[in-house]
Design a protein that fits this description.
Elements lengths: L2 H19 L19 H22 L3 H27 L12 H35 L2 H18 L10
Helix pairs in contact: 3-4
Amino acid sequence: MKAISRHKLILPMALAASLLASPLAWSGDHENCDKEPRHGKHDQRDRKEMMEHRFDHMAERLNLTEKQRDEMRAIFKKGHEERKAQFEKRREDRPEMLSGDPASSDFKSQVAAAADKAAESARDRVQAKADAYAAIYEVLNAEQRETWAKMQAERKERKGDRDHGPRHD
């Protein structure tokens, strides 16, 4: 074969090989792939069910009364609403791209303003997490507080240094 003929065959052969080797090509039934959304309401329902399952697991481990369950749900709902509001505020207050001469005083002012906003946002998140923890602590009795502390230690051990914000197992 001539060199030109080989070059013409390389792309179709590579494409055929990749399709044959693709796990999606051999993964089973694809009849309803386009009928089930991967994002949006479907994921929200799954997330809500997962969070409810986690809450039930936590409530069982802590042996919460119905009154305590209601109080904890209210704390978690308030925390969720606060985080959502903080997210919206960060999105609205997002600093514009830094521009100009990096040696100029204007550029340094832009950097300082952006850093101040980020620090304020971080303080708000940490304070909200501390407030939620204090509220949870008030709901629990002494025995439940010990169990809560063990659960938090277990969670920290599982997550290691990957903590990206408050989650209540």
